[in-house]
Recover the amino acids of this structure.
């Protein structure tokens, strides 16, 4: 059901599909790189697999490739932009670069972006900020897809929160939604006939369960850490909305458009060199990672990993051996690239 | 075993105990207020209950009441201080005020504090920043008290992360350690002969368990959200250390002193008025909270609450009816206040 395709071919195929969807050359180039990199890193859900839905949203007018970030307000180390429902990836890349530029000048910088669209893989932007040498923090609010703690209906977004630490061997990157599992992950387990390793939600009777199908049915996915993920989801939602003068998750619910349409995003960059030399910062990180690497593993012979370490290993393997793609989706994106298929053919399936 | 004592009496008794421990008048006044407020808010573990241990640390020289924050570096919207092992509460209050002052000038401000001591209840500082009208974010690193995901020995701190949103009816405040339960909470359940409502760690055989005593025995407390809390704990640790040029959790482990001795803390304040008027920010928050309040509850007749709402209710009740105190600890602190008991008598028990 899956096969390996060279990175350059994955990227080029996505690029042509996006050109056919009406994106400008530069937009298509940037977005194709980000989608292909996400697949290469093992985040297929927001890599290749997400391309058809992105094109569907463009056709529906929920994403407007002509929408560009417009500066609404600037004060000191902060800038606020309206994303005008432009392409989520290019808007978010722009905003993360602005945050870095502000941090270069002021030590810390924040760019708040309202009225934007799905940024695809959340970790992308914190990762880029860390690759630029800055501590990167970013989050987004989404429409409601998870019950608040104490509720049995979807009433808050899963609002991914990302935080990345620069390091010479590659950034340490947290990329974490507020639900214990994504809906996409539940589907993967169900199709494989497997139970979740840990409870992922409640069934219709209100029992915690590891059965992915029962959770898809009840739509009661579990916040990570129970009340903790629920609480964090709502403060992230509120902060994203008020700091961008943008929509909260419940405002998006009221509009009822697609995933993250009109959402609010926050990008904060911080210069580690404010406290010390870059070398000393590297030493602190290296020492801490060495301690983590040395932690006694549960399984003899295995090794404790820091966040992002597995991703870097997958990226290296994908670049050497090819990117793993789902054959059905790969065929769809190839057909879109060759202009042999219309998105409505795919979206209606 | 517990009784109610008027807030003013709790505060005054703690104040006198702190004076006897060698604190200056102003330090004792500030710390007594914070400890008493934490108990009034229902966080006894870091309120009254923590006073004897704080005094013990002062006697041991792990907290130096003469230590004052010293400015190490300033750049734009950022200031970095060395806390010189001063009193955790006064150091952290100072740093949160500096973050607010920087945010007033630049839109966002960060104060990083290294070489400081336990700040007691983590939420205090984000709460204060929100009461001043700012979005407040703060976190701390601690010595290792929790296994990293994949390890069976303590290898990362529980590194509390706090985030508060200003609101006219009282801030919305997340105050969240990276472990699912605190060790203190395990003890409370064990002493009450109760099982935890959700698994809180592994027993010695490596099975997830709700038995608090089995987890205290194995010391394998569970990160909130399994791999998620573990990953967040390590990025918070790294960021706190590099942004303050301070100690990481593993550096503290190597020193082997008491809880949070020499730790690193980060305080970020953001002005919501950068994006819009304060009124509009209030409207966004009110609308979002109303949606949360309206979420269908699991139990008919109950209500979904946002973080901080329960705390505000408890605070109100404590101010009206008195603060709930553990009688044994209350007697100890009274004896310390009256100079009738030495801390070594208590610490040796």
């Amino acid at each position: 059901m899956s096969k390996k395709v060279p990175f350059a071919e994955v990227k080029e195929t996505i690029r042509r599909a996006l050109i056919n969807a009406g994106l400008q050359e530069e937009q298509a180039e940037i977005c194709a790189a980000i989608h292909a990199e996400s697949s290469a890193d093992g985040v297929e859900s927001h890599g290749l697999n997400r391309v058809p839905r992105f094109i569907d949203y463009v056709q529906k007018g929920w994403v407007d490739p002509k929408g560009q970030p417009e500066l609404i307000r600037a004060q000191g180390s902060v800038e606020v932009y309206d994303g005008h429902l432009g392409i989520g990836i290019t808007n978010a890349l722009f905003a993360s670069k602005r945050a870095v530029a502000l941090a270069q000048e002021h030590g810390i910088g924040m760019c708040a972006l309202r009225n934007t669209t799905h940024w695809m893989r959340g970790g992308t932007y914190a990762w880029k900020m860390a690759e630029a040498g800055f501590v990167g923090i970013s989050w987004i609010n989404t429409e409601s897809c998870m019950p608040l703690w104490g509720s049995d209906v979807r009433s808050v977004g899963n609002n991914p929160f990302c935080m990345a630490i620069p390091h010479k061997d590659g950034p340490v990157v947290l990329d974490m939604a507020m639900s214990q599992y994504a809906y996409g992950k539940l589907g993967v387990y169900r199709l494989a006939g497997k139970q979740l390793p840990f409870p992922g939600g409640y069934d219709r009777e209100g029992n915690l369960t590891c059965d992915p199908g029962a959770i898809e049915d009840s739509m009661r996915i579990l916040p990570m850490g129970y009340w903790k993920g629920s609480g964090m989801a709502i403060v992230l939602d509120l902060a994203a909305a008020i700091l961008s003068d943008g929509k909260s998750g419940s405002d998006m619910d009221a509009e009822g458009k697609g995933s993250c349409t009109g959402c609010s995003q926050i990008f904060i960059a911080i210069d580690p060199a404010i406290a010390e030399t870059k070398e000393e910062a590297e030493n602190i990180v290296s020492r801490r990672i060495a301690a983590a690497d040395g932690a006694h593993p549960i399984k003899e012979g295995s090794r404790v990993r820091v966040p992002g370490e597995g991703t870097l290993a997958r990226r290296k393997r994908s670049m050497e051996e090819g990117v793993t793609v789902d054959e059905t989706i790969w065929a769809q994106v190839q057909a879109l690239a060759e202009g042999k298929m219309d998105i409505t053919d795919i979206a209606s399936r």
